[in-house]
Specification:
It is a single chain. By secondary structure, this protein is an alpha/beta fold. It folds into 2 domains: about 150 residues, 3-Layer(aba) Sandwich (Rossmann fold); about 110 residues, Dihydrodipicolinate Reductase, domain 2 (2-Layer Sandwich). Helices cover about 35% and strands about 25% of the residues. The strands form 2 sheets. Strands 3-2-1-4-5-6-11 form a 7-stranded parallel sheet, with helices on both faces. Helix 1 packs across helix 8 and helix 5 runs parallel beside helix 6. The longest helix is centred in the middle third of the chain and has 16 residues. The chain is elongated and about 60 Å long.
């Protein structure tokens, strides 16, 4: 039997952290070997299984990744930018693959992750869904086929508790559209609109972010031309699809050389 991929879940008490734990346990090719939480969490020092309301798993929750990182092949990290950057330093030192679903990362954070990727595989995605990554490829192709007379708008909606906007997935789609246009997103990105904004700039990419209820995630890329409109849309109804996608990325990343990768690499797209 092939060696199981040993995985640690960062931020195990969070909504995604709990689902990552479940997804790892469901996959026979994986072994959950550790879990972390922020310092001061009432989970720290307790057994992970008991924290989740079940039987003991023999996995104590720790608040310092350094204590356990050498025991794994992959770290699954859907936490905060500050925590992810701190974790990246340790995974790079330990030559452990780092699968990152954290959103809200800024340019300075991404440069730090690029430096870490010189020492270990870093797989980062705004979304780990197969459908969303297919949508990304389609967005790039449609943007390349249409000229700037077609305005591009990224429309997204998430649950009321999401703290960042636009979503990481919306930015990923916008980057694909910009790439299709042969441009850099930073140069043609329009922020959220309010008040007297003036006319839309030809060739720019706009964003609309909605928040409410318990929406898992909806993303639509609209190409609005004169007399016609093209719309590409993805709706997620089960958050577990992201967790299972992250585990797929972990299994793939375990065997890769140091470098920066995306879910498109994992899926061969």
């Amino acid at each position: 039997m092939p060696e199981q991929t040993k995985i640690i879940v960062a931020g195990a008490s969070g909504r995604m952290g709990r689902m990552l734990v479940q997804a790892v346990q469901e996959n026979d090719n994986c072994q959950l070997v550790g879990a972390t939480e922020r310092a001061g969490s009432d989970w720290v020092g307790r057994d992970l299984g008991e924290c989740l309301g079940g039987k003991s798993m023999g996995i104590p929750v720790v608040d310092d990744l350094l204590d356990i990182v050498s025991n794994c092949h992959v770290l699954l990290d859907f936490t905060t930018p500050k925590a992810t950057i701190a974790n990246a330093e340790l995974t790079a030192q330990a030559r452990v693959a780092h699968v990152i679903g954290t959103t809200g990362l800024e340019d300075a954070d991404l440069k730090y992750l690029s430096a870490a990727a010189r020492h270990a595989p870093v797989i980062r995605a705004g979304n780990f869904s197969l459908g969303v990554n297919l949508l990304t490829v389609l967005t790039q192709k449609v943007a390349a086929a249409l000229d700037a007379d077609f305005d591009i708008e990224i429309v997204e909606m998430h649950h009321r508790h999401k703290v960042d906007a636009p979503s990481g997935t919306a930015l990923m789609l916008a980057e694909a559209a910009a790439d299709g246009r042969g441009a850099t997103l930073a140069d043609i990105r329009d922020p959220a609109r309010e008040g007297i904004t003036g006319e839309r700039t030809r060739g720019h990419i706009g964003f609309s972010a909605m928040r409410g209820g318990d929406v898992v995630g909806e993303h639509e890329v609209v190409f609005a031309g004169f007399g016609e409109r093209i719309s590409l849309k993805h709706i997620a109804s089960d958050r577990m699809l992201f967790a299972r996608g992250a585990v797929k990325a972990a299994l793939w990343g375990h065997h890769q050389k140091p470098g920066e990768y995306s879910m498109l690499d994992v899926l061969g797209l």
